[in-house]
C-alpha cells in the first residue's frame, strides 16, 4: 500500500512547489486512498465472475459515503475567487501538481527532471486506463500530456488555459509497462509552447504539442483560493 512518504514530489532540479498557490494540498489520507482505489478498480475489472467480496465492496462504499457526506461542505462549487471565504463551498485542491497522486481518475506519473525549459520522467498506465486490448485509451494519453506539460508550466510560474493540444499517435501504447516522457518548453509572447513525447525503450509512441496562455499565478481567474478550515463545523 502507498504511504504518504512514498508519494511523488514535484520538487526536482531547482523548480519546486513551495508556495505554489494553485489551491490546497490534498490530505495524505486522500492520496493513500486514491492509490488503493485505483488498484481496486484494476482488480474489479479483472474479475471474470461475481464474488462475495465485490458485494461487500459495494455495501461498504455506500456505508462510507453515508458517513463521510455529512462532514463535507453542502455546496460543491469550489472555494475560489469571490467565494474563497465561503465555508459552505468545497475546498479546491491543487490540480497543477501530481493530480494523479490523489485523484484516481487521473494518470499517476513521476518527474525525474524538471526545470523551466525541459522535463522528463516516467509513467505506468494500469488497467483502468485500458482502451484497446492491452493498450492505453488515446483519450487518457491526451489527458496525460496536458497534466505533465501544465505541471511544468505551473512549476515555472507561468501558466494558463490550454489554447490547443494536438496529439500524434505513432505506435500503440501498452498498459502495465513503465514508459518515459520528455518535454521541451518555450515561452513565446503570450503563449507557452510545449512539445512532449512518450517513449518505450527509446521508441516514440506518441507526441503532443500543447499551447497554453502565458500568465503568472496572480493573473489567473481563480488566483484567490480558500484555505482549509482548522476543524469541521
Overall body shape: flat
Poorly predicted runs are 1-19
Supply the helix-strand structural class.
alpha+beta
* Oligomeric form: single chain
Q: How many angstroms does the end-to-end distance come to?
A: 31 Å
The counted number of beta strands is 8
Beta-strand content estimate: 15-25%
Task: Supply the number of helical segments.
Answer: 3
Rg over CA atoms, rounded to whole Å, is 19 Å
Biggest sheet features: 6 strands, antiparallel
* Lateral strand order in the biggest sheet: 3-4-6-7-8-5
> Portion of residues in helices?
10-25%
What is the residue-averaged pLDDT?
A: 88
What order do the SSEs take from the amino end to the carboxyl end, as H and E? Answer: HHEEEEHEEEE
Can you put this structure into words, describing what you see?
This protein is an alpha+beta fold. Helix content is 23%, strand content 24%. The protein is built from three helices and eight strands. The chain has helices spanning 28-46, 52-68, 138-155; strands spanning 75-78, 89-90, 109-114, 118-123, 162-169, 179-188, 191-200, 203-213. The strands form two sheets. Strands 3-4-6-7-8-5 form a six-stranded antiparallel sheet, with helices on one face. A two-stranded parallel ribbon has the order 1-2. It is flat, with a radius of gyration of 19 Å. The relative contact order is 0.16.
Write the layout of secondary structure elements.
Elements: H1 28-46, H2 52-68, E1 75-78, E2 89-90, E3 109-114, E4 118-123, H3 138-155, E5 162-169, E6 179-188, E7 191-200, E8 203-213
Parallel strand pairs: 1-2
Antiparallel strand pairs: 3-4, 4-6, 5-8, 6-7, 7-8
Amino acid at each position: 500500500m502507498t504511504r504518504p512518504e512514498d508519494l511523488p514530489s514535484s520538487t526536482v532540479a531547482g523548480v519546486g512547489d513551495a508556495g505554489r498557490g494553485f489551491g490546497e494540498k490534498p490530505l495524505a489520507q486522500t492520496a493513500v486512498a486514491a492509490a488503493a482505489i485505483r488498484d481496486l478498480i484494476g482488480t474489479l475489472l479483472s474479475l471474470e465472475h461475481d464474488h462475495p467480496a465485490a458485494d461487500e465492496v459495494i455495501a461498504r462504499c455506500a456505508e462510507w459515503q453515508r458517513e463521510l457526506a455529512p462532514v463535507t461542505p453542502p455546496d460543491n462549487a469550489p472555494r475560489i475567487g469571490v467565494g474563497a471565504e465561503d465555508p459552505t463551498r468545497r475546498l479546491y485542491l491543487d490540480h497543477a501538481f501530481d493530480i494523479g497522486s490523489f485523484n484516481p481518475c487521473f494518470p499517476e506519473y513521476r518527474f525525474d527532471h524538471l526545470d523551466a525549459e525541459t522535463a522528463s520522467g516516467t509513467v505506468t498506465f494500469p488497467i483502468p486506463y485500458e482502451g484497446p486490448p492491452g493498450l492505453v485509451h488515446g483519450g487518457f494519453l491526451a489527458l496525460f500530456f496536458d497534466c505533465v506539460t501544465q505541471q511544468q508550466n505551473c512549476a515555472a510560474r507561468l501558466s494558463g488555459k490550454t489554447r490547443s493540444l494536438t496529439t500524434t499517435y505513432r505506435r500503440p501504447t501498452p498498459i502495465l509497462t513503465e514508459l518515459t516522457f520528455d518535454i521541451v518548453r518555450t515561452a513565446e509572447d503570450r503563449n507557452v509552447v510545449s512539445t512532449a513525447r512518450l517513449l518505450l525503450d527509446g521508441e516514440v509512441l506518441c507526441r503532443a504539442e500543447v499551447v497554453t496562455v502565458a500568465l503568472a499565478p496572480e493573473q489567473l481567474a481563480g488566483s484567490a483560493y480558500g484555505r482549509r478550515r482548522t476543524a469541521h463545523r
